[in-house]
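Milestone M4 deliverable, item 7.
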Amino acid sequence: MPRIAAVLAALSLAVAPPALAGEAPCWVDKGAVVVSAALGDIAGDFLLDLSAPKSILHVDRALMNGIETPARAATLTLAGERIPASFAVASLDARSLGLPTTINGLIGADVLAGYVIDLRLAPCRIALWRLRAPPMRHTQTLPVGWVAGVPTIAASISDGRTGMEGRFGVDTGAAGVRIASGAARLSRTPKGLDAASRQRPPARLAALGLGGEVLRNTPAGLATDAPAGVLGDIGDDIWARYDMRLDLRRNRLQLAPLTTPSGRRRARSAGS
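Output delivered:
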């Protein structure tokens, strides 16, 4: 597989209004979606990362509550739903570093596998539907395939000279596009630069092909934790363009592009 080369200017290939019924407020902090939830009697702020194959209870919070086992089974309360869940106990220091709130855990794809998840990032709203969800306005629909416990979609990336395509996780816990480090590199890495930063992607991707859209000059970085078979993740700088519905019951992602005040779609169509 060719590797992706990146420069800093371009990534090269080598108080919100009240929530409506059925919704809960969320917020985006440094590129990551944060929700209010409770795992049993542990209530507070949790990261929401739909590309994470396993939900995690932060070890510091587990010890505060006297939990010394490697996993915690309890009912997860989120967006009005009560979901039987098992969270692994592990450190989230690397994921919560720099966030102004205390992160109690991470909610991943495993505990939401039976749900339809509606998510809009501005203003941030989440809704969970156990059975039939209400109709969405006109959308494009992308098939979802599971790879190593990660819900993925097909997408393509380009540096303007070379293109690659593969499976990308639906990442709501990072800002930009993250590309597997086995397929990518930065052409120059100044001292102190974090090429794998989830919060501040250091490079730019010339083009991202997503369904029927081509998105230009998107923030991007490297992913050192991508499982085999996953080329990378697509993060919240991209999802902020859409009303999105991730249907983990029927394995599909539906996207309805938002519009600017002038009525133009934010995302550019293929060939534009």
